[in-house]
């Protein structure tokens, strides 16, 4: 049995855990990063690659996304390995007048907040996306939307942190957590023990398993997204692409089917059942990612032929040329979802030195740099540049802490 001591032990090696590990290691903290499987085993290894500003409602998350994008621009040179960061811009395709009206309002609210995004007509859209379907009436365009390779990002954070002395244990799970006179103790399933001044729970959709070890509950649940990967092809257009339907489905919370007068649930369409949206991005290698669904199916990570069929039909509807392109695989990932769409970032009430950074749902890649910075600030006693109230880990409890 080994006995390990560190300043900060972080549970979960996704984009957020690795980003926090990197920022704390840079500040001279002795960090131990622990994952129950391997780096990227959670959502960060089964997701799209977008740093999408346009999808965000005006507010603190959009502000943080601005800052995160700035931080990506410096990280691409600062990190020890390439992260395939690129700013191609993004277009959200608009199919009909109803979506045009919603998107005009949404864009106007974003403009007032300082985001450079506009509605462009079909003629301008064709300059960016010459192969788009004939009946797409307009689109949004923001030159700032960017992308990054999440696996390379985690690898670069990990490498950068290791160079500053961080240690990483994979295939290791915390079996028990105990409060010590100063700091926290972890009993690992390997039998080893860890003593840390500070613990950080960065376990994504599984974060509640860890807080439960100290008798605290956070309402984080998995929201599945299924994605198709195509063979590598030459670029179809200049920008990455979404549909207004995708944004509209994110703006409207998922509601249960409306009851019929006879008391039975109304039948949902297959697209509604799978929470179907459209996100279409080209990777550096030329493979396209076609996503995705938003489903509440517990921790089931299987892909479903019906959902994949819907995604496939949808990409052909927006880009008919895609009927000629081969798919090489499909995957599903579990977004860590919270009831109000905000992550939990901060110290757990009643548990000094026990922090959580989880619940980023569909924005965790985009927000990982800023998550690393604000968590490192909180842990080292520096005031973060953002008000953190909206992210309070105790905001749903009222049940007391530990
Ligand atoms: C289909 C899909 C598409 C997406 N597209 C985008 C996008 O384009 N842009 C964007 O910004 N975001 C996107 N997201 C969201 C993004 O992937 C997540 O928000 C982000 O990856 C969450 O990262 P995380 O580090 O918080 O959690 P995760 O990546 O889930 O990492 C959690 C880690 O904790 C580990 N773990 C769990 N329990 C324990 C334990 N008890 N002890 C130790 N370790 C543990 C897991 O093994 C895992 O490695 C997408 C998600 C999906 C599913």
Automatic annotation (TrEMBL):
Keywords: Oxidoreductase. One of its GO terms (molecular function) is oxidoreductase activity. The keyword Oxidoreductase applies. The keyword Oxidoreductase applies. Residues 7-378 form the FAD dependent oxidoreductase domain. Pfam families: DAO (PF01266). It comes from the Bacteria. One of its GO terms (cellular component) is cytoplasm. This is FAD dependent oxidoreductase.
